[in-house]
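User: I'm putting together a teaching handout on how multi-component assemblies are represented. Below are the sequence lines for each component of a complex, exactly as they appear in our records. Could you produce the 3D structure of the whole assembly as structure tokens, so the students can see both representations side by side? Please keep the chain order the same as the input.
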Amino acid sequence: DAGVIQSPRHEVTEMGQEVTLRCKPISGHNSLFWYRQTMMRGLELLIYFNNNVPIDDSGMPEDRFSAKMPNASFSTLKIQPSEPRDSAVYFCASSPALLDEQYFGPGTRLTVT
Amino acid sequence: AQSVTQLDSQVPVFEEAPVELRCNYSSSVSVYLFWYVQYPNQGLQLLLKYLSGSTLVKGINGFEAEFNKSQTSFHLRKPSVHISDTAEYFCAVISTGGKLIFGQGTELSVKP
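Assistant: Of course. Below is the structure of the complete assembly, with chains in the same order as your input.
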């Protein structure tokens, strides 16, 4: 299995631009999670889905952030408009079920200038 | 609400020495506990997990952890570390809703 796939691995954009991060979970996994990691705040859970349905988006920082999971094999995290403080590494993780271990992707390093 | 506290932000140790990374949790319900490792510029990788059963859990790379309910701890140990163990280590607990709640991380630095 290829594991959780994230794209792009690196993204540099200017403030105000729209950014879309993509994630392909492990086949057969029912839960998908989006995290953000920064030096100041550590690992933060942004949102998670179970069977393609958003369960908890209380970690999404602002309305500028949105996430979708149109099918079991694909999810996006969108930031519009982006700001310098959004610079971070964004991880996607998937798990077979909600109360199970999570498998993390390699992350997308986002830099907003 | 569940929470996780990693008591040491940085642990320097010499190669081949033993190491213990400390983790305490708070939870009023049954706990599922995890240790993850993050190597530089990589995602998190599961080291070991405790769901139920034996309180001594063995993981990958020679690591083990002991679940101690009375002390609400889940400390990670390795009897002899290698340079390649240099990484950040995260303790985590799963909430009843399925959210992984992470500690702030412990940076293990193994020196020759």
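A couple of points students might notice: The CA atoms of residues 36 and 90 of chain A lie 4 Å apart. Chain A has no helices and eleven strands.
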